[in-house]
């Protein structure tokens, strides 16, 4: 596809901009506008939405890599469900991260408090997203995907991603002027005439299906059913635990609407800000500790919470004071199925990813094998083939080598330094690593990991952001979603699915690709 995406004339650009922008607004491919763009006085009631940045065309992505990501997702789900069950291993990870990371230490303290009194809920739900970039070495060998990170909490964009695939696939169809409107199959897409002169026939694009919104919602539904009947006499519900002032709210809404479309069972969904946990929830009297929720708009109604789906609580910003930590403790000790539990949140730290991926003897496949009871050694090696080298900054042999790299102004250029944080904007790149480490006391270095940079082959595309087009080289990051429901005590997995994908794309000059952070944009794959 050398002439892909096609060159556009100025008037074609204007037309495509209009089509994509209107489609995005009409289909909830939206976020709330940033406060800097819309002054509070212009939107006092929060009625405005703005189109999410998107690529005009689906980005070419090696089919072999896409299939590789899809193929390993269930093994990844199983791996992280198993790691979540290995409390001893996670305790070691928290210990290795060290006291300097108060956030991780405080999370662990909550787990220990609940363990002390005994967990009343052993089922645990994971809505995961494994992120990758394409790696191809200079020899021009077969491209492979390499894992950027594995998310176990608040894995976002599943709601917007299936919409983006729709935008690129079919929903921008415009009837061909020479065809009768009844011949729906002959409708033409965004990428075809009559929108642009150098049309790309739809059948030359290979657009994989993407059920991310419905798929993630069905994971929540599984947990809702698996919770069993209410034992308090109140109807069951699902709570989306959210951040105040969340801009990416429509992403979450697509999941919510998908859940609400279930008629058997009916699934009431409520949004609860993290800061209001204690205000609106309580634990039932008695040993079972059912979580009860009274919606502020229905003060006479109470629901028994079956599932807490967390779109908050993943970073220190949500825990400004002791009361916020007590809120998390209150949820953790309740009978609601947590997505995720604290153990699963800790399993998703970059430290765990590093321990799995650090080249060691004996090889990591043996560590992996131990966590994949139902898998064969081939699934362990399939997972290991997605790892890139990641090192600790401790005093082990690998750690000492990493320290030498991270403090060398030349060697550090192929690396990224990561703390145990989520949500983008936390990493230190390349030449900034040595001066950064100089500013950090030596005893705190163990809370970081050092990772080789993945350098994907160049791709071109056009990004539509805030109504303006940005053309040029882009870098794509593929996320594969997975849902998994397991029992911590029985050590059984009752549900394990791969559910759709995310393609996020950023300009090739940007280190971080967060869509919410304003650098990245939504995209979809055309497989090549
Ligand atoms: P977070 O949990 O904050 O999303 P990530 O590990 O995903 O942290 O890093 C954020 C971004 O940094 C990624 O989306 C990617 O753009 C970039 N990045 C992270 N690790 C690498 C890597 N090894 N190679 C290239 N880019 C990376
Ligand atoms: Mg993350
Ligand atoms: Mg990430």
Give the strand tally.
Answer: 21
Mean pLDDT: 90
The figure for the number of domains is 1
Strand content: 15-25%
- Let me know the largest β-sheet: 7 strands, antiparallel
CA-based gyration radius: 24 Å
Q: Treating each run of at least 4 consecutive H or I residues as one helix, how many helices?
A: 15
Instruction: List the ions, cofactors and other small molecules found in this model.
Output: adenosine-5'-diphosphate, magnesium ion
Terminal Cα span: 8 Å
Structural class: alpha+beta
* Morphology: globular
GO cellular component, one term: cytosol
GO molecular function: ATP binding; glutathione binding; glutathione synthase activity; magnesium ion binding
Protein name: Glutathione synthetase
Subunit structure: Homodimer.
SSE inventory with pairings:
Layout: H1 10-26, E1 30-31, E2 50-51, E3 54-55, E4 59-61, H2 63-85, H3 87-97, H4 102-117, E5 123-135, E6 144-151, H5 158-171, H6 212-226, E7 235-242, H7 249-260, E8 269-273, H8 277-280, E9 281-283, E10 291-293, E11 303-310, H9 322-332, E12 337-339, H10 342-347, H11 350-357, H12 364-371, H13 377-384, E13 390-392, H14 397-406, E14 415-418, E15 428-429, H15 433-438, E16 449-452, E17 459-465, E18 468-487, E19 492-507, E20 520-523, E21 525-527
Parallel strand pairs: 4-21, 7-8, 7-11, 11-12
Antiparallel strand pairs: 1-2, 3-17, 5-6, 5-18, 9-10, 10-11, 13-16, 14-15, 14-16, 17-18, 18-19, 19-20
Bound molecules: adenosine-5'-diphosphate and magnesium ion (2 copies).
One magnesium ion (MG) binds at residues 149, 151, 422.
């Amino acid at each position: 596809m050398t002439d892909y995406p096609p060159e556009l004339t100025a008037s074609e650009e204007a037309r495509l901009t209009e089509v994509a922008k209107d489609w995005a607004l009409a289909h909830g491919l939206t976020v709330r506008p940033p406060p800097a763009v819309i002054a509070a006085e212009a939107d006092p009631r929060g009625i405005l939405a703005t189109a999410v940045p998107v690529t005009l065309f689906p980005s070419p992505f090696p089919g072999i890599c896409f299939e590789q990501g899809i193929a390993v997702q269930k093994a990844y789900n199983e791996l992280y469900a198993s790691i979540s069950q290995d409390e001893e291993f996670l305790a070691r990870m928290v210990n290795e991260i060290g006291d300097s990371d108060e956030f991780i230490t405080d999370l662990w303290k909550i787990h220990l408090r609940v363990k002390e009194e005994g967990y009343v809920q052993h089922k645990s739900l994971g809505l995961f997203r494994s992120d990758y970039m394409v790696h191809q070495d200079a020899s021009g060998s077969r491209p492979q995907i390499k894992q950027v990170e594995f998310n176990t909490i608040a894995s976002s964009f599943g709601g917007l991603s299936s919409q983006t695939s729709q935008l690129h696939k079919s929903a921008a169809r415009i009837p061909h002027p020479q065809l009768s409107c009844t011949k729906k199959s002959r409708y033409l897409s965004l990428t075809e005439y009559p929108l642009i002169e150098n049309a790309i026939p739809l059948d030359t694009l290979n657009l994989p299906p993407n059920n991310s919104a419905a798929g993630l919602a069905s994971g929540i539904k599984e947990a809702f059913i698996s919770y069993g009947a209410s034992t308090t006499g109140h109807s069951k519900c699902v709570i989306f635990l959210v951040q105040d002032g969340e801009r990416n709210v429509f992403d979450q809404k697509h999941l919510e609407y998908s859940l609400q479309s279930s008629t058997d069972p009916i699934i009431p969904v409520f949004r609860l800000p993290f800061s209001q946990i204690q205000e609106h929830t309580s634990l039932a009297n008695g040993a079972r500790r059912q979580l009860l929720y009274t919606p502020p708009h229905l003060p006479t109604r109470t629901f028994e919470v079956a599932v807490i789906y967390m779109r908050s609580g993943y970073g220190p910003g949500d825990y400004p004071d002791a009361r916020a930590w007590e809120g998390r403790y209150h949820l953790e000790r309740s009978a609601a199925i947590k997505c995720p539990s604290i153990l699963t949140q800790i399993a998703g730290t970059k430290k765990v990813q590093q321990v799995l991926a650090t080249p060691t003897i004996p090889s990591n496949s043996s560590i992996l094998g131990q966590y994949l009871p139902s898998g064969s050694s081939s699934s362990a090696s399939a997972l290991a083939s997605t790892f890139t080298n990641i090192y600790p900054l401790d005093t082990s042999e690998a750690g000492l080598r990493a320290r030498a790299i991270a403090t060398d102004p030349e060697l550090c250029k192929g690396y990224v330094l990561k703390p145990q944080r989520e949500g983008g904007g936390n990493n230190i790149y390349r030449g900034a690593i040595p001066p950064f480490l100089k500013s950090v006391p030596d005893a705190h270095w163990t809370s970081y990991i050092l990772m080789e940079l993945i350098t994907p082959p160049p791709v071109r595309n056009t990004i539509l952001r805030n109504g303006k087009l940005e053309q040029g080289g882009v870098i794509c990051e593929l996320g594969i979603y997975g849902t998994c429901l397991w029992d911590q005590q029985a050590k059984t997995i009752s549900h394990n699915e791969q559910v759709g994908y995310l393609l996020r794309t950023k300009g090739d000059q940007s280190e971080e690709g967060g869509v919410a952070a304003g650098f990245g944009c939504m995209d979809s794959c055309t497989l090549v």
